[in-house]
Design a protein that fits this description.
The chain is mainly alpha-helical. It contains nine helices and five strands; from the N terminus they run αβααβαβββααααα.
Length: 187
């Protein structure tokens, strides 16, 4: 929600917003998904693919769970951030991209840097503005706004139903280990 809001209220709002979950792809696939892929017998690729950076060109790319990126992919991501070009898997020609990166993680990146599992140069490049968003269980005051948002979203074109006192009490007492996504599912 925060990444969508940053995009929608920023100068890139007319360009694409692309969300990418870094933890959802195996190491052998993630680079092609991010940077694209050229048709090549060396990579056994039968088709050309643009990748998420090119899909988000001019707009915003959300890298969710950025801590899950393998170290080799981190190095390639750093190059994109520093040079503004992607090199598709199996390709020889860099492709210029202009993308705002928003990254998120539930993992303490500083600890991963100390353990050598996350590149320190990439950490400092991504950590231009560190915005800590507490879990929902620590910000119950946001519940009325979030509930109203999800009720409007899930009841398009009609007046959303109200929430009875028992349901309201149950929603407020729950700890939401799945955070806002779990609240959305509950609604």
């Amino acid at each position: 929600l925060v990444a969508h809001t940053l995009h929608a209220r920023g100068p890139r709002k007319a360009a694409p917003f692309v969300a990418f979950d870094c933890a959802a792809f195996p190491e052998g696939v993630i680079e092609a998904e991010l940077f694209g892929e050229e048709r090549s017998s060396a990579t056994a690729s039968r088709r050309r693919r643009d990748g998420r950076f090119r899909a988000a060109d001019g707009g915003t790319l959300l890298l969710g769970e950025v801590a899950a990126l393998p170290l080799p992919t981190q190095a390639k991501l750093l190059r994109v951030l520093e040079e503004g070009v992607v090199l598709p898997v199996g390709g020889n020609d860099p492709v210029p991209v202009n993308v705002r990166i928003v990254s998120s993680t539930q993992t303490d990146l500083k600890s991963l840097v100390k353990e050598g599992k996350f590149r320190d140069d990439l950490y400092f490049r991504l950590n231009v503005l560190d915005l800590h968003i507490p879990p929902l269980r620590e910000r119950k005051a946001d519940m009325p706004l979030l509930l109203a948002h999800f009720l409007r979203r899930f009841c398009p074109g009609r007046v959303p139903p109200g929430i009875g006192p028992r349901a309201w009490e149950a929603l407020m007492e729950y700890s939401y280990p799945g955070n806002v996504r779990e609240l959305a599912h509950a609604v």
